[in-house]
Design goal:
Blueprint lengths: L6 H26 L4 H10 L1 H6 L3 H16 L9 H45 L2
Length: 128
């Protein structure tokens, strides 16, 4: 690698990292929380593939990343073909988002399990 990390490349790397974290958070929130359950049910009625998109955090994260790359246009690799460079940046960011989701999802599952246990405990003592 003859290319030295430039300020522009470092800035693009930071943008990709921010997009990845935001994408992971948005995707898990939309696909897994009760807040968006009505939205998921509605999209499933519109079309099964649209419903699937909003129930799969990995799938949704791609589209969130693509939107983020379209808005912020980070370029990590310089091939001379801007669209190719954006595609590389997008899939790099999708991969980062997947790693972040891998860290976030177990925490989300633990929080949900705790919430279920609290509800069960409360229900057990409220029915006298």
């Amino acid at each position: 690698m003859n290319e030295v990390l430039t300020a522009s490349t470092l800035a693009s790397l930071w943008v990709c990292f921010v997009i990845a974290i935001a994408s992971s958070s948005i995707s898990i929130t939309v696909t897994q929380t009760e807040l968006f359950a009505p939205w998921r049910a509605w999209t499933d009625k519109v079309h099964y593939k649209l419903g699937y998109l909003f129930s799969c955090f990995y799938c949704l994260s791609h589209w969130v990343v693509f939107l983020g790359v379209a808005v912020y246009r980070p370029v990590l690799a310089h091939s001379g073909y801007l669209v190719v460079d954006w595609i590389v940046s997008a899939f790099f960011t999708v991969t980062l988002s997947t790693f972040v989701s891998g860290l976030m999802f177990p925490v989300f599952l633990a929080a949900m399990a705790k919430k279920v246990k609290e509800k069960e405990f409360k229900d057990m003592f409220s029915h006298k």
